[in-house]
Design goal:
This protein has helices at about 5-15, 20-25, 35-45, 75-90, 135-150, 190-195, and strands at about 20, 50-55, 60-65, 95-100, 115, 120-125, 165-170, 185-190, 205-210, 215. The chain is of the alpha+beta class. Strand 2 (about 50-55) and strand 3 form a beta hairpin.
Length: about 220
Amino acid sequence: MKKRDLAIMNDLNRFRCMTRDDIIELHFKGLKQPVTCCNTVLKRLRRDGYIEVSKERHPYIYFPSPAGIKKDSTKIPHFLKIVEFYRQTNMYHCPKTFIVEPKYGKGYMEPDAFMIWKGGPFFVEIQRSVYSEKVMNEKVQRYESYFISNEWQQEPWQPNNKKVFPAVIMITDTRYKIESSNVKFIQVNNIKQLIDADQPLKPMNHEIACSGLKLLLNN
């Protein structure tokens, strides 16, 4: 099996599902005939039983085989938004690490992704719905609880010289009033808005440079 075939299958397993356009952007960009090449590869992978497809939407949606979610799952738009976010980050810098829906234990937050991007660790929250103040406060409290637990200090990605709690990037069209003395929340419409800000944020204790943004995170 070709290296690109494995990369496509790994991404399908990581993101749960992807459109053909997602796959073209991540694995066939720069070719003279990216659409034709992608269609040929996906057809072969389907024929050999490595991937599955749903033709109910256009562009078609592809899944690993066996698929980890139902082809009519209500979470498909959510997972596709995560892929879209990942594609946006790649426009500026490919994340060193990108984990979809990591699990941290009962009572703690459930981010849509964790990534190490431009030298800094981040949790990612992609808000497709408008949350009530109560629901948002509960979400923030779960991050606070994880911070207080100190379990994050044992993560394998932590630097040896200091321990860093990730900032939380929230992709949202709604601005929430978030109060936290321990966790940095960054509310933006998209990654471009974050990059364009290019200015220091309110100082906290840990400093990480991220494409001109100085994200100062709490100890």
